[in-house]
Amino acid sequence: MKKRLCILQVTPSEPNKDHIDLFKNKSDCDFFFVTHDNNHPDALKFCPETTWTDTRNILAELVPKEYEYYAFVDYDYILRPQRGKNALEQIYEDLEEYEPAVLTYYPGEGLITPFATDKDYYESSEYSIIPFTHCGLKIVHHSLMDWFFPMVTKFGGGVEACHLFNILEIPLLGHVVCSHKMLYDNGVTDLETPHNVNPFESKLNMDKMWAEIRPHYKKLNLLTQGGYNIDDSLSIKSFFVSLFKEKGITPVASNKGVDYYDEDRISRFFDTENPLFYSIR
């Protein structure tokens, strides 16, 4: 029988102690990590001179395949439950409530998104769908690991990989749950990450990625009809964020045992029969 959850972390030298205390060696949860600056005896692997995306892919590859959910949580995130539970208890509750395709949490301090300062939206519901959330916290159903991973590295292994991850969520958005019952803060802003060192290059890489995936996305007419510039990689994000917020679309619960990898549903959004679709992955 699969354990309910494992937490997966990329960290420079050692894992977040608070996360270790919360998640390691629990009855239904385990904790795994890799390092990139210094070796650690408990790490799955030491990964020097790798990008953030490389290390995410290594975690996804090496973790034992015996869990229902795989939670990727950045080492510098501060988890703040809002309903009297600890972070693990809150995750369990939310998984039980929705059995989601992907679960994430409401952004708090240090997250660059308008939602982080939108108190009215935060207080409007216990659960919502926020498309294109930060990839620093994604809890992924086991049936979708091969859909999302490996994340793309051919454009530099930065924000464009996160952007593609969110694009691949689109067929599943009804089951991509953002719980407002816990906030997460970005505890450390790394000024040496590529998107902070050279934001222009990061946006250029996003546009290159989008130029390759765009011909295989079947709903471009919605962007053009909405007046969006389809050459801009952020046009698809703007469309879906506005759509779900304006219409107040709420997530749909699934039963345990669900298999989210539905080729028919995915093929309504992407030209999965074309081998070039997979060449970007």
Number of domains: 1
Distance between the termini: 31 Å
CATH architecture: Alpha-Beta Complex
Q: Using the coordinates above, name the CATH class.
A: Alpha Beta
Strand segment tally: 8
CATH topology-level name: Spore Coat Polysaccharide Biosynthesis Protein SpsA, Chain A
Q: Count of helical segments? A: 12
Query: How large is the share of residues in beta strands?
Result: 15-25%
Average of the residue pLDDT scores: 95
Overall SS class: alpha/beta
Helix content: 25-40%
What is the string of helix and strand elements? EHEHEEHEHEEHHEHHHHHH
Detail the poorly predicted runs: none
Largest sheet: 8 strands, mixed
Radius of gyration: 18 Å
For this structure, what is the CATH homologous superfamily?
Spore Coat Polysaccharide Biosynthesis Protein SpsA, Chain A
State the shape.
Answer: globular
Task: Summarize the helices and strands and which ones pair or pack.
Elements: E1 3-11, H1 17-23, E2 29-35, H2 52-62, E3 67-73, E4 77-81, H3 87-98, E5 102-107, H4 119-123, E6 127-128, E7 137-141, H5 145-148, H6 159-168, E8 176-186, H7 194-197, H8 199-213, H9 220-225, H10 235-247, H11 263-267, H12 275-279
Parallel strand pairs: 1-2, 1-3, 5-8
Antiparallel strand pairs: 3-7, 4-8, 5-7, 6-8
Helix pairs in contact: 6-8
